[in-house]
Amino acid sequence: MVGDDDELSLREGLLFGMGDPLLDILAHTDEAFLKKYNLNPNDAIRADERHISIYQEMVTKYQVQFIPGGATQNTMRVAQWILQKPYITTFLGCIGNDKFGKILTEKAKEVGVNVHFQISDLEATGTCAVIVTAKGSNRSLCTTLGACKMFTNAHLEKPENRALMEKAKYFYISGFFLTSALDSFLEVGKHANLYNKIFAINLAAPFICHSFKEPLMKVLPFVDILFANEMETKAFAEEQNFETESLEEIGLKICSLPKANNNPRLTVITQGPDPVIVVNKSKVTKYPVNQLKNEDIVDTNGAGDAFVGGFLAQYLKGKSIEVCVRCGIFAASEILKQPGCQLPEHVIFPEEFKS
């Protein structure tokens, strides 16, 4: 971890992220709705021709909520919510020149995220169908990227955006961004590596490990912190022929994969209500998760992103990995009580997360 006093002070632009800014369309449905659209509980996929009518049907048949979404944007919003100091985070992505894009911009700025969006006149702002089933315990995501896939490296290279990247000391990008912006993904990773900054990513979804294995492995040598849930971890292991389903063993193997610099890689694996597994070099540590009552869980959408946001909020301040994990668990627990990744009001933050 970066350790001088300047790095550990919270200042504007400390954490830099890029990703797909989406507007989530959330509805509580049933298993029949999932089957109709060939979806699985707790899955995350890109929409195809089978899903053309899903968004309209949700709006027509169900009571829906429109919530700012997208994995990296969720994480940045949660980190800002915990840090309680504006513009610590910077976020780049591409939106459409439309109403949904304006809503996303306003919502991000409300919580202090410094957004620098590229705006496309060719595509609408990306949307994500969030289908919640089993009384909130399952969520399936079906995304239409829209303008998100129009992001270009030229936007990152704009002088004002390049300056934001150079100012940052920590970087986070969800694996979803590999599907449309590999060049920018690599640009940030190489910059972090060159200047001994911290670069973190999330495997995001099993299909990233399977269908985007090649770009993922191009990025991995630059990754200092890798986040994943148990399904993503096992998908990664399958593609890498690790020949084990032990999350601890997979974490150790991930840490030992080639790295572009000599800094050790940290692997953080979440598994819902089961302990968080952290692998640092050859050491494996498990951290228990506070159990929520079933009736307190509204839905699981955004919980993983919130965990990363809570973790990084403390990591920026130089806190121990144990405190980072506890804050990640706290953030995820609070988001589980909300519909979608909405930031709850009137939450009392534990003292250890305030200092």
List keywords for this structure.
disordered N terminus, 14 strands, UDP-N-acetylmuramoyl-L-alanine:D-glutamate ligase, 14 helices, 355 residues, single chain, 9-stranded mixed sheet, 5-stranded mixed sheet, alpha/beta
List the SSEs and their pairings.
Elements: H1 5-8, E1 15-18, E2 22-28, H2 31-36, E3 44-46, H3 54-61, E4 65-69, H4 71-83, E5 89-96, H5 99-110, E6 114-120, E7 126-133, E8 138-144, H6 153-156, H7 159-167, E9 170-174, H8 182-194, E10 198-202, H9 206-211, H10 213-219, E11 225-229, H11 230-239, H12 247-256, E12 266-271, E13 274-280, E14 283-287, H13 303-315, H14 321-336
Parallel strand pairs: 1-5, 1-9, 2-7, 3-8, 5-6, 9-10, 10-11, 11-12
Antiparallel strand pairs: 2-4, 7-8, 12-13, 13-14
Could you explain how this protein is built, in words?
The protein has 14 helices and 14 strands. Helix 13 runs antiparallel to helix 14 (321-336). The protein is globular and about 55 Å long. It has 355 residues and is an alpha/beta fold. It has one domain (5-21, 69-125, 145-353): 3-Layer(aba) Sandwich (UDP-N-acetylmuramoyl-L-alanine:D-glutamate ligase). Strands 6-5-1-9-10-11-12-13-14 form a 9-stranded mixed β-sheet, sandwiched between helices. Strands 3-8-7-2-4 form a 5-stranded mixed β-sheet. It has helices at 5-8, 31-36, 54-61, 71-83, 99-110, 153-156, 159-167, 182-194, 206-211, 213-219, 230-239, 247-256, 303-315, 321-336; strands at 15-18, 22-28, 44-46, 65-69, 89-96, 114-120, 126-133, 138-144, 170-174, 198-202, 225-229, 266-271, 274-280, 283-287. It catalyses: adenosine + ATP = AMP + ADP + H(+). Belongs to the carbohydrate kinase PfkB family. InterPro entries: Adenokinase, Carboh/pur_kinase_PfkB_CS, PfkB_dom, Ribokinase-like. Its EC number is 2.7.1.20.
